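Quick log. Single chain, no ligands specified.
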Amino acid sequence: MRVLLGEDTDLPELYAAPDQPWLRVNMVSTVDGAATGEDGTSRSINNGVDKMVFDLLRELADALVVGAGTIRIEGYAVGRKPLVVVSRTGSVPPTQREAGAGKVLMATVSTAPYVDEAREILGRDNVLVLGSHRVDLARLKDELVLRGYRHLLSEGGPHLLRDLLDQGVADELDATVVPRVIGGSHRRITDGPPVEIPLRLTTLVEEEGTLLARWFVER
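-> predicted structure:
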């Protein structure tokens, strides 16, 4: 379904998640594939309509699942929704160390060098050890659903998106393409070893050249 964004567009209805455990990833890029701008963050390439959908998806989510590197680079502040930090080192990002009890969870591995420190900062029950060398993202999704977080939103980064797709955990990719070309060397929305994942386009919203596509992962 292609939609021109207007005053009568019901964005919450367009982006409503199915009534089942659901994990979607929201990413932005330029027409030439850059996922970040010159400052190394996505903030330097996004625009107003992308921010509108970004805020909506956060509002619809029960919890956010984000890679530790992205939290550091993008400077995530403590938000209203619970934040799940995915980290193979177990290091809690500086901006999340003073969060209230239960506001931040950590998904890490048994070999993580900072797992004990994470338990001290976040509380033992809020540190999920899921695997020995890589985070088992399917187990993470199951654990979060058991805690009542059925609708999950990931904002990447590119390594995490690649792994969510590779491990069959992502149900949906919401990809914004802004009408800009910036050249240079920038990361794409996925990073890491090759993956081959078929997608099905369900909705395409257009606003002054910005394309907001809602893709479902084909099983």
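The radius of gyration is 17 Å.
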